[in-house]
Design a protein that fits this description.
The complex is a heterodimer of chains A (about 475) and B (about 120).
Chain A (H helix, E strand, L loop, with lengths): L2 H27 L6 H48 L14 H32 L3 E6 L4 E4 L1 H7 L3 H4 L13 H10 L5 E9 L5 E13 L2 E10 L1 H49 L8 H31 L7 E5 H11 L1 H6 L3 E5 L5 E5 H17 L5 E9 L2 E8 L33 H11 L3 E7 L3 E9 L6
Parallel strand pairs in A: 7-9
Antiparallel strand pairs in A: 1-2, 1-5, 3-4, 4-5, 6-8, 9-10, 10-12, 11-12
Chain B lengths: L2 E5 L3 H13 L3 E5 L2 H11 L3 E5 L7 H11 L7 E5 L7 H6 L4 E4 L4 H12 L1
The chains are: A alpha+beta (about 475), B alpha/beta (about 120).
């Protein structure tokens, strides 16, 4: 009900009462025409009417005035509660009048206020949860806002940062740089730079800053988002060091490769002419001359193997090894290897046993495969004084394996890990150190891997060793 | 007497090869550079060419290509001599037109047999 209506009722209430009085008075005027008993009757009725009318008027007046003042009172109380910060309070007057509308509008307003506050809280929470340091400062550098991370990163409480100058957070030698970068903001919408910041305890840390200019109520402010890049810097340094090491390794390998080439050139003459002399092409030799020349030839051959191994190792390490992949018969290669060792096997009176299919076609690098098998067979002969050397070629699915087994001195369990290491020569007590480069197995294993395969060793000390080279039937990359 | 053209810039290697070949009854023509080799091969028409791959100026592979280009029938055997540091280049050598290759250091015991194989 509108207040206007209420007031109308109030007004009417005050009209009815005087009207009742007037009608009562009229009744008393009528007394002259009526009998005494009638008059008495009418007088009682009049009094009754007056009382009823008065009560009614009073009731109406009280209830109407209450329906006006109560909502106003509730509204007043509500504003006080909400004003004290409780935005959840609802005035909630059901009244339909202007005051009811006012209180509902009021509730709507507090609802909006609450939403706004929640939004602000959410934004604050997000800013504080951000992984980056966020600082807002004016053009002089005075900090107006800092998020949680900005404090954490520098060992300050957020409150301590507010009002501080950004210059005090930067190492002194960088202040000019950041000032210049901030000046750049006049021409760029955003600047990105790296700087070094100082913690409260005086320690430094590298930071990557992304700054942009923002307008806030007509004032230009700088929003800086900073990220601690300690980890990244460390990783970069490590990467740089690693790259340096790699480059050094590469240079070393290149140096070795070219040196080895130079070392080989004179060996070509030594080996060639020793061969000519030994063949008697330049005239007959006596026995002593033959024996001594044979020693020259043998030493030159050993030196050549050493140089060749060094070249191969450096090529593999410099990732410069070139393969020639083609189909070839592995059985044929094994036969060639065994043929080349026929003299050595005979000299040591060893038995040679070979098990292989008539033809075993593989697609790989023939020369490198032969080189590995040569090394395995040569080792077997070198470390076996009596008994036999067995060689077996067998296929299994997409793989082929070549096993070289000997009945030689074997390898101690403790020496097994050293087997494929560079320049590691295994010494066996009571045994002369065999002539070798310490590169053979290391290189063979490397080559096997380049060919996409592997060498595995098994041995029983004193009984013999078994080396198995496994290669893919078809080369598909190392 | 069969004529063999030996192309090699290293004096000692040249002596080594030509010594073995002359001792074995071949006529040896010596060349120290690729350019010279091409010219001599065309003029002298040898029965076989032994070509060092690493040469000053045009290398052995380029010289081989030029000799092949000058030939009518392409039947002249050309044997490349490669250094160990150059291996893995078998395809390159064959692609240039060589019939085969011998690796340094030259082993006098097998060298002749190799040459004779290509002369047949």
């Amino acid at each position: 009900m509108h207040i206007r209506t209420k007031l109308l009722i109030l007004f009417l209430a005050f009209i009815i009462i005087p009207a009742a009085f007037i009608s009562a008075l009229n009744l008393s005027n009528a007394s002259s025409y009526l009998s005494g008993a009638q008059l008495a009757e009418m007088g009682r009725l009049t009094v009754f009417l007056i009382i009823v009318t008065a009560l009614l008027g009073a009731f109406v007046a009280i209830s109407v005035s209450k329906s006006i003042s109560d909502p106003i009172h509730a509204l007043h109380k509500g504003t006080e509660i909400i004003g004290s910060g409780n935005l959840d309070y609802k005035v909630g007057t059901p009244a339909n009048d202007e005051i009811g509308q006012l209180s509902r509008a009021f509730d709507q307003m507090t609802d909006n206020l609450k939403r706004l506050e929640e939004e602000t809280q959410m934004k604050g929470m997000l800013l504080d949860a951000a992984a980056d340091s966020i600082i807002v400062h004016d053009l002089e550098g005075k900090i107006i806002y800092a998020n949680q991370k900005a404090g954490e990163l520098r060992g300050y409480a957020v409150k301590e940062l507010l009002g501080k100058n950004i210059h005090n957070l930067v190492v002194p030698e960088r202040v000019r740089l950041i000032d210049n970068r901030i000046k750049d903001l006049k021409t760029n919408s955003e600047v990105k730079f790296e700087s070094i910041h100082m913690r409260k305890d005086g320690t430094n840390f590298p930071i990557e800053v992304n700054a942009r200019l923002v307008d806030w109520q007509g004032q230009k402010l700088v929003l800086r988002v900073g990220r601690d890049i300690t980890e990244r810097k460390r990783a970069e340094e490590k990467e740089l060091e690693l790259a340096k090491t790699r480059e050094l390794d590469r240079l070393k390998s290149m140096f070795i490769a070219s040196m080895s080439h130079e070392l080989r050139t004179p060996l070509n003459s030594i080996i060639g002419f020793t061969g000519i002399l030994l063949m008697g092409m330049a005239g007959e030799l006596n026995e002593e001359q033959k024996k001594q020349l044979a020693m020259v030839k043998s030493s030159a051959g050993h030196l050549l193997t050493l140089i060749n191994d060094v070249i191969d190792v450096s090529k593999i390490e410099a990732e410069k090894i070139q393969l020639t992949i083609e189909e070839f018969d592995l059985s044929c290669v094994v036969k060639e290897v065994l043929d080349s060792f026929a003299v050595a096997v005979e000299e040591k009176a060893l038995k040679l046993r070979a098990e292989m299919p008539d033809k075993a076609v593989v697609k790989s690098d023939e020369r490198r495969t032969k080189q590995i098998i040569m090394n395995l067979v040569s080792n077997a002969i070198k470390f076996t004084e009596k008994g036999e050397i067995g060689i077996r070629v067998e296929g299994s699915g997409a793989w082929v394996s070549i096993t070289v087994k000997d009945s030689g001195i074997g390898i101690k369990e403790t020496d097994m890990p050293k087997l494929f290491k560079q320049f590691s020569r295994i010494m066996v007590e009571g045994q002369p150190l065999q002539e070798g480069t310490g590169l053979g197995l290391y290189l063979s294993q490397k080559l096997a891997r380049v060919l996409g395969g592997e060498i595995k060793a098994a041995s029983e000390f004193g009984k013999g060793s078994e080396f198995t080279l496994t290669l893919p039937l078809e080369y598909k990359g190392g | 007497m069969k004529k063999i053209l030996v192309v090699e810039d290293n004096e000692k290697n040249m002596y080594l090869m030509s010594f073995i070949l002359t001792k074995s009854g071949y006529e040896v023509i010596k060349c120290g550079s690729g350019e010279d080799a091409v010219e001599t091969a065309i003029k002298e028409k040898p029965d076989l060419v032994i070509m060092d791959v690493q040469l000053p100026g045009i290398d052995g592979l380029e010289a081989t290509k030029r000799i092949r280009a000058s030939e009518a029938d392409g039947k002249l055997p050309i044997i490349a001599v490669t250094s160990y540091a150059m291996t893995g280049d078998k395809e390159r050598v064959l692609a240039a037109g060589c019939n085969g290759y011998i690796e340094k250091p030259i082993n006098p015991e097998t060298f002749l047999a190799e040459i004779q194989r290509y002369l047949k």
